[in-house]
Amino acid sequence: MRTSTISKTVQLLALGIYSAGILSSCSTQTTQAEAAQTTEVAPDKMPTIMAELTDAPLVPAPITRKHAAKVVVKLEVKEVVKKLADGVDYTFWTFGGSVPGKFIRIRQNDEVEFHLMNHPDSKNPHNIDLHAVTGPGGGAASTFTAPGHETVFNFKALNPGLYVYHCATAPVGMHIANGMYGLILVEPEEGLPKVDKEYYVMQGDFYTKGEFGTPGLQPFDMEKALDENPSYVVFNGSVGALTGDNALTAKVGEKVRLFVGNGGPNLISSFHVIGEIFDNVYTEGGTKTQNNVQTTLVPAGGSAITEFKADVPGNYVLVDHSIFRAFNKGALGMLKVEGDENKRMYSGQIVDKIYQPEGSTVQEMPQSKAPAAAVALNKNSRMELGKTLFAQNCQACHQAEGQGIKGAFPPLAKSDYLNADLNRAIGIVAHGLEGQIKVNGELYNSTMPKLKLSDEEIANVLTYVVNNWGNKGGEVTPAQVKKAKASYKH
Ligand SMILES: [Cu+2]
After folding, report:
1. Is-above-0.85 flag for pTM?
2. How far is the CA of 150 from the centre of ligand 1 (A)?
3. pLDDT digits (tens, 9 = 90+) for 138-157
4. Which of 48, 236, 322, 486 has the highest CB neighbour number within 10 Å of its CB?
5. What does this protein need as cofactor (predicted)?
6. From 3.30.230.10, 3.40.50.410, 3.40.1440.10, 2.60.40.420, which CATH number describes the 44-362 domain?
């Protein structure tokens, strides 16, 4: 219900804007038109070129011609069922058969003859708004195309830059949410500086009935879209489109340029490559560069061009640094850089040793230094020795009175978990513990390191623990430790 009212309003608004645009365009375009005149070539003198279109992550070759041309672009809209994630399918509406749409590359002052074809199997009409177009609706006003139809319009590429294009048919949000967006690059007349690798990466948010990972064909969820609460945030149309065998590649020493777009429909992207610094960013896809950038903001319906030299071999992870989107909703890609290491630029790990400030978790504890551990003769001497062992090995985390630290280290004092199963406690001290446990009603999900204590030492420290702070008492012997260790599974 909400949808249809909103879309009607949008259509009316759009029409209003379109006519206003026609009226005002004459007066506002003078400077651009004047500038363009210097390079104006009679239409019949201009060479005609068929645009090469590519699917992400590939980009058409840089433009080398030194003059404007008439460029024919033929873009076909198709509604297709494709993979959104492993085991998850979605009905994408596409410019050219995949998400994002085909990459279009033209030159400033080119005159474009734009054909939009809508495949006969489509269920919906579509159109196209190219942000590179100066004119009503960016072309949307001239390209409303029913299934099985083709529309054509011409435009002149007045402004260089990297532009988003998208469908603008009502309900606009739904057409974009289904994948109807792509990038068009208008190269400046002098071209872009030469690089070794160019790639096309475009982010989008998807709204499915099922939560992230729910298998099967997932329908679009309008409520989630209105709430701007996507189930998926992905690069290039699906989870994993840029990882594993699909990862981008470069060699050490190569200059890499990423044409980054964001189709939205809702989220803005904090685009970042883990372990790289962008030498240059053409902010917002314009023609000015910013240098030495860690994370660049890519608006919904906007873009950025990022450039960097691949100096150090390894795997570089592309993320939206709104980081739950990366690790929990799919906005993660990879660039594999191969080549020789440069240890001065990046050494790799050269030290890994134990560091234990108070209260921190460490991976492994050294053997206690005592040359030959004292052997307890009876329960009392076991407790005596255990007290020292506790101070040396446990107290930093579990605290002097075994009270623990809420949320980090569970209590050993009056611990229902400890008292319920002594053999399990032996196993924990012998092997360490990872994962969620509940102690006295509190959840802990942390790591206890493996401690490298002898059976005798484990017996002594636990005898000390179980006879203090309200625990149930008793004696733990080395023989019991040996047996419990052998049968402990975790
Ligand atoms: Cu559409």
Report:
1. no
2. 14
3. 999 999 999 999 999 999 99
4. 236
5. Cu(2+); Cu(+)
6. 2.60.40.420
